Amino acid sequence: MGIKSIGELELAEKKVLIRVDFNVPLNSSAEITDDSRIKAALPTIEHAMKQNAKVILASHLGRPKGKVINEMSLVPVAMRLSELLGTSVHMAPDCVGPEVKNMVDNLGPSEVLLLENLRFHIGEEKNDPEFARELASLCDTYVNDAFATAHRAHASNVGICKHVKDKAAGFLMLRELEYIEKAIGNPERPYAAVIGGAKVSGKLEVLENLVDKVDKMIIGGGMAFTFVKALGQEVGKSLVEEDLLDTAMDIMKKAKSRGVRFYLPVDCVCATEPGTGAKPTIKTIQEIPPTLMGLDIGPATSTLFEEALSDCATIVWNGPMGVFEVDAFASGTLAISNAIASSNALTIVGGGDTDAALDKTSNQDKVDFVSTAGGAFLEMLGGKKLPGVEALRS
Ligand code: AMP
Question: pTM for the whole thing?
């Protein structure tokens, strides 16, 4: 069963509720510090406006857990969205209820109404059927453009689908699905996955799923030390998940049996602790002293990984190669970011921190696709079906 695109729907004069991801970061003065999520939803919103739809936007912001928390109001988003659209956006005092219904009924074609934070209601995250029905009663047509929440079954992305006649994915959601499908479906080869970040435990399913699909698996970040230790190597004070040594070994065995080239760091940047005051030294993986921890891949590893990526036709990257937030331990992540950005491969990057690493190297525009999602991107790469995507099938 396929998923319709918003582009296939007749929207004129219809009340169209679009679930967007406006979960933007705000500073203590309630100013938006990064509006990229709002910008990412513009193509879908502008399409609906051009089609003369009555546009109702719904989103969550932060984790208010069913309570009204003024600091998590979407009012600053309405203001920024008005500027970006060049037209005033109406702000609703709530996301359901008679007053909101009245505002929806008075909405004209091409006008935009932003509902207040969905998570001010406990029913949103609980996927409460009554709350979902109330949301659905606001609209004729439902569109989901919030891929970042698709791994959660909430009222505004799953429950609501049972109560609407017409449903479709927005352009951002479709783009995410298209690129992730390219990576997990039928990728051009050689296909490499570059996986980093703190722990194996956070990415176990992704590692297990990708080792079945890729030609090269490249491991950096803190998680590499669990693999190195599993091979019987001492790694000093580096991050190791002792309970996952066997699992790490199993992943490497599976890689071997499939003929996957499995790359681990050969050297690392070490220090006594990850803080900014730490004095870094470079050690080979075989010679990390008991007093030090590995906090970034070393220069020889960067060269090795760059070399391994140089002939690839598809590259998926998630997770930094080191504690890249601290300059002394950022070089490895920056080198890999540059290698991926300058590659001719289809390059797909996802996960919050990886995104930040790309930003740090101004490489955002040099990869083919940067996912707006963290958890949803990883779960889909891990081979899971996402409830928010499945609910759109008809
Ligand atoms: P994740 O959310 O699992 O992708 O992990 C990202 C975090 O991993 C970042 O905050 C990094 O600082 C951290 N990290 C990367 N490499 C290491 C390392 N060698 N030791 C400790 N933490 C690391």
Answer: 0.89
